[in-house]
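README: folding subset

This subset contains proteins for which both the sequence and a predicted structure token string are available. Records are stored as plain text. Below is the entry for Epoxide hydrolase N-terminal domain-containing protein (487 residues), shown exactly as it appears on disk.
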Amino acid sequence: MAASQIPSHLHDEEAVTPYTMHVSSRYLDLTHQKLQLTRLPRELDLPDSHRWAQGTPKSVLEPLLDFWLEGYDWRKAELAKPLKSNPETKTEMETLRVHFVHKRFARANAVPLLLCHTWPSSFIEVQCLIEALTEPVGGLGEAEEQVQAFHVVAPSISGFGFSDASSREGFGLAETPAVFDKVMGRLGYGGGYVASGTECICRALAFNHPTRCLAVHTSNPSFPAPSFKRSRIAYLKYRVTKLTKAKIPMLSFGYTPSEISTPRSAQTSGTIKDALQLQRPLGPTLHHLYSLRPQTLAFSLGDSPMGLLAALLDVLHTREVVHDPLASRPISPFLSPVELEMQEVRAIQAVNANSHETSTSTHGLESVDEESDWLPGPEAALRWLRCAHLDSESLQNAYSSVRLGISTFYAQTSCTKDSEAGTPPPLMWGSSSWDIAWVKRHQRPGTLPGLEAPDLLVPDRREYFGGLSKGGRIGTSGSRERDCSEG
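--- output ---
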């Protein structure tokens, strides 16, 4: 869908209407038949520490197949919370019907929050967060009215879940934020809102709609290294931090010693380095590979629910969650990085102490969330992924003055024994392209934080956006309210 497909103005007949999730029994019967006909491949007898080295293992997939055939009931899933507790709606934009969840907070002073998903996720990922964001409960010594609440809108990208797929080539990071922004306008939030979720869509929102997208929060972002040509100040700060190894608080600029130290994998021989690379989860790599030939992949993934599940699990799998009382703390560029480093070391030691236990932390992803990719077919989502990869390069080199908050979740993967080998790029690399206003580092894994760490993600959003609201940097919802029947 080209940008011209999105109407430049709204009409009364372009209503927001209630939507009830329901899949035809004929389609469910066909899916069940395909599951019964599944042919599982043979695999090598590998030790547990290497069972993910060649992709999704049969020992993980086979129990899920049995569960789908014998224990899973889609009709119950349609009626179960949290799906039914959050009102679903649709609105039409010319030829496309856009599906989204919209839930308002009882008080009018809530902040409008747009939750953005990406591939291979869907609106299901944010379902468990909506009630906590719209109906907050005060913590110790904190009154309920002091807790930041939100009016939440969670749309589905075109071709994902229950949103119509575009029939035109080129629907990517320019068109998706435009649709989301139009949805917010139709719901009465045209005066301004905040966005949270995948960095690429939120970044496009911040660039294309900076007067309405007032602040952004994202999780586990990855930034390119600062260059002198793109941002001289960010580049010089990074070089100074490299020289001091981030051990001088006033010269750390938000970096930590572990981010600055050279990963061991870079010091190893080519053979060992290649072996380590093969053992890591290929999330970013698979994102790129899947985007290269979306139509070819659609023939196999669109015809096999287990094939689609195997592909998604290979992208998403992480270790089981490790609980640590010192797991997180807010970070400011002006706080001492040494104190943070001590907590990081303790948390990493706790993770390594459990390194012999590997598992898949999907928290139900094998059921409802995978179905949201299976039902419409994966081809439109894969086409969108291709466009998003092509569009993202032009966004990386520009600077956005919209404030950014970041939550990171330490992901000790099921095949990475060397914690330094899996160290992500420094967060403050993002200062060359964002106004980074808030950072919190968590020592718990979370490939999909909305599913794996909601107890950390919700307070982070409250703290970051609440601080901006109290400081007058973003406004609460003072716009008109639509009728409840419209979602």
